[in-house]
# Entry
Amino acid sequence: MAKYRESFQLTPRDIELIETALRSEQSRHARTILDAAPPAEFSTAAREINHLLAKIFHQKVFYSQVKRTGFPGG
# Structure
């Protein structure tokens, strides 16, 4: 049985391109949902895209400037 690859080598630019493409697709789904009664497949796809964007966001590491007090922004 095939195994999934557990690690990927993506640059921040690669991830930015993926996020941009997902947001574009999300926007297309939102327009479809607003224009007419949404088929279940469109709302499911929009939900999946939103969850994927959230997963990417929560895996990012954000840095803030640390002052002499040792607290970020403090």
